[in-house]
């Protein structure tokens, strides 16, 4: 015999030993899960209860909460490592499995142990094969499965069931306390509010920012037993507040006349605590710079200008339709700012570095503008400047028409040559003049000619020849003419074109009077 590992007797022994080793490994894993579950559930309940008790009696007891978290974490990790991960990652040694089987199966004696020892000395004796055959026969005849019984775990299963049942009963009986303890344990440095018989509906103003020296009113609404006294903690001071009814809820108020330093506050009502809120105090705001960039509408063909504004009495005059860019610098940084233009909703400004803000708007009518300094929640902390910025709009005047002919209602001969003549004027430029005509009092006017200069001009001479067909020049006929002048205004929200109408009636009909003269017929 040169290689024991191929001997049939040894292979049979090795297979049985390996099979029992796998079963023993699974048995240890199940037992480890039970042990770990018992330890983790028990220590968690104890740790959560301790964290809850400490935070109720010592709201600032974060050191003890850290100790509880560390101890609970170490015990949990050790239970998982030894009970679950260890049997999953490491197989039991063959020697340990052999001794376990020999201790629980009577007729094996030291058969498995001897076989393992002999396997290490394969060429020690010529009698080894016969010895292994004898051990193999004993192994095959022995009830090895009785050595590792799943029924041995029944006590562990029962213990787990009792523990989980007890944990369930405690959780159902004290849900708020256990939840609070758990939240406090995993966040030992944080303040975790407790929940009691009261229900806090709202705490105003919550987290907010106020200007140094401002008055602040804290208003609390809660559902709690009638007459419940609220405890308001502001910094290191505690105040007892009596309730007033507000519908179905209790209402508590507390006034701080002058708040000069950033403070935290919270409230407790009938065993229920609110979270901590912060009143952040910022210095009083003031303007250090104020200027405006005015960009007139494009049709005016005027360059943009920058104008500094007086902070104490700011005023601005702009052409109608101008784009106004307001630039402001504050004495301290602010979270946000907005422009309040008249009664319109505030328009957010862009920030240029904490204390510099820029806002744009189109100026169509006279208005008053203020800068609203805001906190991060959009709440207004102050209005600047003290006197609003008064913006006066210089409006674009409508065009006018100076009629040269006909200057008024006229009578002409049917054979006369007719030419409409006028001068159209505008403060910024005439862009078009249209001639409209109607051949009857009830007929609508319709356009027959247009004068459109290449470029808008402040004064535009107009000449329209009026060539009418013979049917419209016969005796007793008349026509109405109208001139419409449009300027070059383009202001978006306003009318696309401003215009001025000039209207007259020309009568062409002629007849003989008693003296044989021809006179106009009206």
Could you describe the 3D structure shown?
This protein has 522 residues and is of the alpha+beta class. The protein has helices at residues 8-57, 62-89, 94-104, 111-119, 128-141, 154-173, 175-186, and strands spanning 199-204, 208-211, 214-223, 230-234, 237-241, 244-246, 249-259, 263-269, 272-273, 277-282, 287-295, 305-308, 315-319, 322-330, 336-341, 347-348, 350-351, 356-363, 367-374, 380-394, 400-405, 410-411, 419-438, 446-451, 457-465, 478-487, 499-507, 510-512, 518-520. It folds into four domains: 4-186, no CATH class; 199-282, Immunoglobulin-like, CATH 2.60.40; 287-394, Immunoglobulin-like, CATH 2.60.40; 400-520, Immunoglobulin-like (Sandwich), CATH 2.60.40. Strands 21, 22, 23, 24, 25, 26 and 27 form a seven-stranded mixed β-sheet that branches. Strands 2, 4, 5, 8, 9 and 10 form a six-stranded mixed β-sheet that branches. β8 (263-269) and β9 form a beta hairpin. α3 (94-104) runs antiparallel to α4 (111-119) and α4 packs antiparallel against α5 (128-141). It is elongated. Mean pLDDT is 83; it is low at 509-522.
Secondary structure layout:
Layout: H1 8-57, H2 62-89, H3 94-104, H4 111-119, H5 128-141, H6 154-173, H7 175-186, E1 199-204, E2 208-211, E3 214-223, E4 230-234, E5 237-241, E6 244-246, E7 249-259, E8 263-269, E9 272-273, E10 277-282, E11 287-295, E12 305-308, E13 315-319, E14 322-330, E15 336-341, E16 347-348, E17 350-351, E18 356-363, E19 367-374, E20 380-394, E21 400-405, E22 410-411, E23 419-438, E24 446-451, E25 457-465, E26 478-487, E27 499-507, E28 510-512, E29 518-520
Parallel strand pairs: 2-10, 13-20, 22-27
Antiparallel strand pairs: 1-3, 3-7, 4-5, 4-8, 6-7, 8-9, 8-10, 11-12, 11-14, 14-18, 15-16, 15-19, 17-18, 19-20, 21-23, 23-24, 23-25, 23-26, 26-27, 28-29
Helix pairs in contact: 1-2, 1-5, 1-6, 1-7, 3-4, 4-5
